Hints:
This protein is of the alpha+beta class. The protein has a domain at about 20-35 and about 50-70. The protein is about 30% helix and about 40% strand. The protein has two helices and four strands. Strands 2-3-1-4 form a four-stranded antiparallel beta sheet. The radius of gyration is 12 Å and the shape is globular.
Amino acid sequence: MVIGFVLMHVSPLYEYEVFNKLSKLHEIREVHPLFGEYDLIAKIEAEDYESIGEIIIHKIKTIKGIIDTTTLTGIKLH
């Protein structure tokens, strides 16, 4: 199991819409609005790094209003 944190720049006109759409994706465990350089952060859990990439490319970056993303990845420590 791998974890990804996606930091997003979002158009001010779409912040609520993007937040709501991200919240409905089953791969996304948490979504939080931010103040500062980024507008939103989402926590993703997936089976492997390739799956994280697929989620970002096909499900997150296709949401209208997302301008840019930065992804941080990690693993769960037991």
